[in-house]
Design brief:
266 residues, mainly beta
Length: 266
Amino acid sequence: MTYFLRCCSFGFFFLVGLIIALAGRSTAGYEPVSFQPNQWSMAYATYYGDESASATMGGACGYGNLFVNGYGTDTAALSTTLFQDGFACGACYQISCVQSQWCYTGSPAVTVTATNICPPNWAQDSNNGGWCNPPRTHFDMSKPAFMKIAQWKAGIVPVMYRRVPCARKGGIRFALQGNGYWLLVYVMNVAGAGDVAGMWVKGTYTGWISMGHNWGASYQAFATLGGQSLSLKITSYSTQETIIAYNVVPSNWNVGLTYEASVNFH
């Protein structure tokens, strides 16, 4: 009888330990995906605006005031080849001037965030003014960012570039717009790959609702969500990792406000 009790006790505690271990693997043992820099490639870079970078405010990605929202002056507009209909918004690129007399000694690099599109100019030849015409890979940088890699009077310089992880402070931020039947969310301060492929929203009384890509870094849902706390699920475009910001938006939310999550990509 004593042997039977010892045997069963051992089996019981072994089973409990196994269940706890397996449960831990799905939560505490989860290893987030870390975005890694990719290979260097060749492109060209110009700049727009002046030293104040005021011309870069707003932009096709919808980040609004880049100073207020944490992007500063190290930003760039991408040619359509890179912009990918807005799915490159928020991506970070390390850029270094090469093979030009206007490059600084040692070819220092600057890391910029994609915040805008550089549209084609079909009235100009692609090699003489139409720098952002497809299929050219081109960065139209803010002037302060350009001046970190080359003398501004160069106008245009050849560069080497690569995607790098975005370093952000805090969690993902969601700026809300819309009305009682339409929710528009601008996604900002995304770390890791920096980009977003898809979003879902869940109200207190709803299931997960798929949000459509509006433009740039904004996603929309046609649903009545007023008076409900909102959770948002985000998938990275580059890594396909998905994270969830539970109840990131309180039930008394209003359009025109920005809410910050406690989670972010890596």
